[in-house]
Amino acid sequence: MTPHEPRIRASVVPNLRSRVHRLLPLLSIACGLAACGRVPGQFEIVNDQVPTDSCAVPVNDSVYQGQGTLDARLVRNGASAAYLIFPLLRNNLPGASGGEVDSNKIVLTSFAVDISVLTAPEAVTSLVGMLGADPNLSSLLHYKTPWSGSLASGGGELSAAVPAVPAELAARMLGSQGLSIQRSTWLNLRIRSFGKTTTRDIESDPFDFPIAVCDGCLIANMQPCPFMGTPSNAGHPCNVAQDYPVDCCTAGNELVCPPVVSQ
Predict the structure, then answer these.
(1) CA-to-CA distance for 230 and 239, rounded, in angstroms?
(2) pLDDT > 90: what percent of the chain?
(3) What percent of the chain has a predicted confidence (pLDDT) above 70?
(4) Which pairs with CB-CB distance under 8 Å and at least 24 residues apart come from 133-138?
(5) From its phi and psi, is residue 99 left (phi > 0), alpha (psi between -120 and 50) or beta?
(6) What is the pairing mode between strands 246-251 and 219-224?
(7) pTM
(8) Cβ-count burial of 263 within 10 angstroms (0-12 exposed, 13-18 middle, 19+ buried)?
(9) How many CA atoms are closer than 13 Å to the CA of 61, on its beta-carbon side?
């Protein structure tokens, strides 16, 4: 993951929003002439897709979820990401006609992720503030990850699987003692995709996705290992630490999810 500088929101600078609105007509003209990276509506992240039981990510704008849950206790040792997001991308640039080369096809290069607190206990809020202020740690909240793929113009779609919360961030939140089994900590994941056409670099509209972060809220049933009987809850097919309830078993101090099952 590569650090990057977060975008300044209009609310941070007094009167910036109204100034931007007054300048929009001029900015649109200037962007058309200078090939700016983002014109709203040209390149978008439609939603967060719901993977299949085999962790295949569909391309279907009617199969999605609007929020997520990360159980920090379930993040596996050695995992690079604690939470994955599955964005559905769409290229709304004008399509090629006849046998023309598709000069508006978007070739993907990366995703950027910016993480902020929506609501959280003081311990978590203070932790995130400290991380954001430290140049050596701010990449846990603001980073880019490389990606490849392409989207045809005229409405072409593609799905992806993007690491959206670093495992180290989840571990630090768990260690802050600010998490509980209750979903009282909410983060916002702001996702942007970057790519290029034959004539310019292009950036997607930002996509905001809220997730609750907890300590143990996704653990459905727990027994000593091996688990007796077939588990009722297999967990998320792509990442056991997110979204779906999962049955677990304990082996000493180790939590095994999904559980080892008695033969």
Answers:
(1) 20
(2) 78
(3) 86
(4) 138/3
(5) alpha
(6) parallel
(7) 0.85
(8) exposed
(9) 9
Q: At what angle do helices 122-133 and 167-175 cross, to 10 degrees?
A: 130
As given in the structure block, the two tokens for residue 59 are 């391309």
Q: Which residue has the higher pLDDT, 54 or 18?
A: 54
Q: Counting every residue, how long is the chain? A: 263
Take residue 33 and report the two structure tokens written for it: 């002439």
In tens, the pLDDT along 195-204 reads: 999 999 999 9
Instruction: Answer positive or negative: Cα dihedral of 56, 201, 80, 129.
Output: negative
Give per-residue pLDDT as tens, 243-260. Answer: 999 999 999 889 999 998
- Do residues 227 and 259 lie in contact, with contact meaning Cβ atoms separated by under 8 Å? yes
Q: 158 - beta bridge partners?
A: 89
| Start-to-end CA span in the chain (Å) | 41
Long-range contact list for 134-141, CB < 8 A, 24+ apart? 138/3, 139/1, 139/2, 139/3, 140/115, 140/166, 140/168, 140/169, 140/172, 141/6, 141/114, 141/115, 141/116, 141/169
For the chain, helix, strand, coil in percent to 5 are 20, 35, 45
Assigned token pair, 103: 């000069």
Q: b or e along 73-112 (b: 16 or more beta carbons within 10 Å of the residue's beta carbon)?
A: bbbeeebebbbbbbbbbbbbbeeeeeeeebebbbebbbbb
